[in-house]
Specification:
Layout: H1 15-23, H2 34-37, E1 42-47, E2 53-60, H3 63-82, E3 92-100, E4 108-114, E5 120-127, H4 130-142, E6 149-152, E7 155-159, E8 164-165, H5 166-172, H6 181-197, E9 208-214, E10 219-225, H7 249-258, H8 261-281, H9 283-294, H10 301-315, H11 326-338
Antiparallel strand pairs: 1-2, 2-3, 3-4, 4-5, 5-7, 6-7, 8-9, 9-10
Helix pairs in contact: 4-9, 6-7, 6-8, 9-11, 10-11
Amino acid sequence: MALISKKKLIYPISPVLRRYLIDYSREVDIPIHYHELLRYTSSIALYDSKDQDTLWETVFFAESDREEIHLNVKKIYALLKAGGDMTVMAHLFVDRIDLCVYGNTQPFRVRIVNRINDNFDYFYIKNADASRVYGLELEDLLSPNRISYLVHRNTLIEEHIAGIPGEKFMKLHMDDPHLNPIRLAKEFVKFNERCFARLLGDMHSSNFVIDVTPDFEETHYRIRAIDFDQQTYEGKKSIYLPQYFKENNALIQLGMNYITPESMHQYQREERALIATRVKSSHIEIEDILRCMEQDHLSPIENVISLRSELSKHYKNEAFLNCRNMGEILRLSLHQVIK
């Protein structure tokens, strides 16, 4: 069973990471920042359609502030979704702004609605944590999923990742007669391999969603991480393997029931081959982000020492023992994939 050692430290964005974000157009001037949303005057608990407390609170602003805040929030949405084309704002309104009171960085979630057809979308305004920014960038470069985010000063803007929360899926959908257990188990094996290769930790069922796509003949599944705070932070190898979290037991059991060891190894090799291809096709970006990480402080030294020791044993590669920081460990981990 995987256990997080203690509450994760928050790391500010360093000058070297800031330069990377500017070079790759992730740093964009925005009209409102995280701390300005803390001016809310009141809040109420947000309940879902079944009257269950979501642990989010809907916040309200003074009348003198609300119009300006909502206008600036819509401008951020235009920057995130339309490259700054403000004409998309014409039919949009801010339906709700929620605050996650239990989260590490207490993010705000904005619900944007198109008044013409009532279609809605979400995005998030958060305190910028360097670990999370690195995690988002590596997700965009190394996973099958593109992801949109922006940074300005100490504020992080993140798009919403659609899908059924893993915890909810395992509770409500595992007995669905249309479930394809082999395909779902295969995707969990591949997700497990992706997380381990790029050292994304803490992928228990609350930190990923399952995207279900019905096809003309079969149903396809994609497991997507939604929380990137534990990118190259923990010192235990098991934290980077979703298969060790008890919250994922339903998916783990599915794999044990429907996948043979030979098939599992095949799926692992397939996923590593895909990651290797992405590393080669985005070589310049990967090299730049790894250089940033190697110059950055992203984890306590005791975590670095512990992880390099465990990975050295896992891969039977003593070169890990020479790694001085998490960036160097990640570089060597990706090199193992390419090999």
